[in-house]
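Why run this: before we spend reagent on co-expression, it is cheaper to look at a predicted model of the complex and decide which construct boundaries make sense. The entries below are exactly what would go into the expression plan.
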Amino acid sequence: MKMTKAKRNKLIYNIVTFALVIGAFLILQSMIANKTITRSLKGQLVPICCWIVMAVSLNLVIGISGELSLGHAGFMSVGAYTGAVVSGLLINVYDIQDATLRLVVAIVAGGLLSGIVGALIGIPVLRLRGDYLAIVTLAFGEIIRNLVNVLYIGTGDGRLYASFLNKKLPEGVTMLVDGAKGAVKIKPISTFTAGFILVLITLVVVLNLVNSRAGRAIKACRDNRIAAESMGVNVTKYKMMAFVTAAVLAGMAGALYGLNSSTVVPTQFTFNQSINVLVFVVLGGLGNVLGSVISATLLTILPEMLRAFADYRMLVYAVVLILVMIFTNNPTILSFMKRLIAPFKRKDVTGGDAQ
Amino acid sequence: MSQQKHHSTTKMVPVPTNSIVPERDINEIPVLETRHLGIEFGGLKAVDDFNLTIGRTEIAGLIGPNGAGKTTIFNLITKVYEPTSGAVLVNGRDLHGLDIAQASKLGIARTFQNIRLFDNMTVEENVRIGLHNNIKYDMFSGILRLPRYWIQENRQHEKALELLHIFGMENLADERAGSLPYGVQRRLEIVRALATNPKLLLLDEPAAGMNPRETEELMENIARIRDQFQIAILLIEHDMNLVMGVCEGICVLNFGRVIAKGTASEIQANPVVIEAYLGKKKEGQA
Amino acid sequence: MIFLDNLMNGLSLGSIYAIIALGYTMVYGIAKMLNFAHGDIIMVGAYIAFCGLQYWGLPPIVAILAAMVVCTILGITIEGLAYRPLRQAASLAVLITAIGMSYLLQNIALMIWGANPKSFPRTFINSSILHIGGLNIASATIYTILANVVIMIALTLFTAKTKMGKAMRCVSEDRGAAELMGINVNRTISVTFAIGSALAAIAGVLLCSSYPILQPTTGSMPGIKAFTAAVFGGIGSIPGAMLGGVLLGVIEIFGKAYISTELGDAIVFAVLIVVLLVKPSGLLGKPVREKV
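The model came back. Tokens follow.
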């Protein structure tokens, strides 16, 4: 098969993405081995991996599938809670001491449950369009947060106890999820290597999906829904595919994130958190996976490094969202930019736009 | 008529829905049959009692003044709209209750009056979307890059180039569809529609915005596509040279109702048609 | 009696939602965009009124007027600077911009007024409790419901009778055609934002009169719920916003009273989801058809 220009560009893009991620991992690992890494950065490594996965998966929904989802943090919380419960269950009830095994099972369970929730939400939500879809995903994110707020799960006597709305667990139960206090007494077992592997899996899934028959169908539904349907593409199916895949990945990131600390509280997964991830996606470029990786990394490290930035973080984010949108969408600014870079481009192959 | 007529020799024969089809198609189930098709928008009958039969290899034209309901009929046939009365049959199968994608799978493909390409995708990718249901592999083969992925991707690539060759557009395969000139975009829409392997191709003003030379080329291509793929083509067009030159059966619509059906020469001589287009004057036709 | 108390509370909360929802519904109807920052304009209005009352010693009416003026100017400015450049852009881009604007307002408020909640001062609005029959009705409830009815009637007359009101209806029907008819679309949209923002200021004062805790995030949740109300009633419809707002307020209060306090928000959002699935055009809205 002859390698076309577009194919070659895609291949280079994918190679650069993977090389960057793997390179960064190797450098950081050697820094850890040499003990040259700062303590604060070391503590950030797992969260960075989580936010990369969150950003890339949200980009699949917003950038590739073209639907604004404002409830991505909700899926992360489903994963975080599931991970905490599964890990607690494995150690308290089944006495499994192997941390790696517990982590893997927890992450898989987190992804699975989040995917199921994603599918349940997706069925009604994806029938809607545009702004309505955005506001309903927001609503679902808030509903999920409301529900886990009144969820009580514990283990005792070799079994699992759970109650909803009221804490009706028997005495002497070890609490895993304690209502508004969140998931408690978690034994942190997340590792940077696990985070790195999760990032790799995410990149493989998203990049390979995008460059396949299903990915093209997803993009077609984004570019022109009616035309895609007229070509026999089942729009709901492909919107669903992107949405659920993103939910699974967010759930896995959530499990990793939850098992990185000793508690997880519902207020960690508010609408603000969804907006945080949205900023990563917008700043990295809609549809640009490598961009999401870079912006998620930088914007997670930056507040740690710059105290001043941490104080004004949300203010800066707000301005960034507005400016990026205006600069990438205003026709006057776009044509101005085009004229600005025109002399540097060798040749416009397609000729002028005749419209 | 200054143009050479491609189908002046076609013998048309009548069929039950008060339509005519080419004699060569008479023994087969018609590719399209509409029965008393109608739709109302808030009490207004945009299309009313529309009956039309199209033979399996016929090139048919749907003409009429602006606002006559031509595109609405396309939208009814392709299930963008659900009719409020009547039925659409494709290859003898009633489309009632189907959605747009299901209708496409039964063999209907279309182009759009206001071009609807996937602007941010390449020309080849646009055609590959057309091939979506013809050359398949599942999501997991794609993500895991199983052998099936490579085989089918290769087949899609070759088929896409083969289809683009119809309009000599192979060299544009890597261009972004949205950046193409208008006329090329129209041709790409036809290629994309053909990629779905249709039995019936609906063209909504394919010559709009084309110069006379391009229109002449398009006319030859429409005839060639029909001959090569052995499909039926129904087109909406305001360019009378194209319609009269290439269409075997022509249906004239005004205010949502059929006012005349017949061959090019019959339509041109029909006083009702002339009146609909030009008012009461008799000159200026052809 | 508890039932009637809850009903009055529901009507009062619902009236606040209705006034906010009017802003959403008018902007959505005319500019075809979800102004996510609308809820935060409420918050700004409440802060201005708060400053007027607490620091500048203004009489309540003047403080409310000041809040309305500031919000009107703010609304027009936001529209002109952030939304107008995106008039032709995809709705995704506009919505993200509006979310950015919402965050910008919240964070500016955070810088000016700090994160600590302020206690909204007492005014004539919430100074007394009326005893009617066996019912105890806060005066704020009466004023809120009254304000809602007055605003509703005024807006209906405005859109039906005045030239600008007719222009608004034209633009919402078909922007291109309105432009060709010589209607200044940009000005019409600006006026819509101005009216919506002035109403938001009133809503802010009423909200804080009933629930006197004021902080930078005060407006966001009522804002989102009011959008829910606008969708519930049928987006673009003024009576719909009123109906949706009042119903949603009653549902929320009853849900909290009889089902679960913690799940109050979840119940409201569940209503939104059910409405969108069963009747996406809302109670009084008109269905729209995509042009092909």
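The two ends of chain A are 34 Å apart (CA to CA). The CA atoms of residues 40 and 305 of chain A lie 9 Å apart. Bring this page to Monday's planning discussion.
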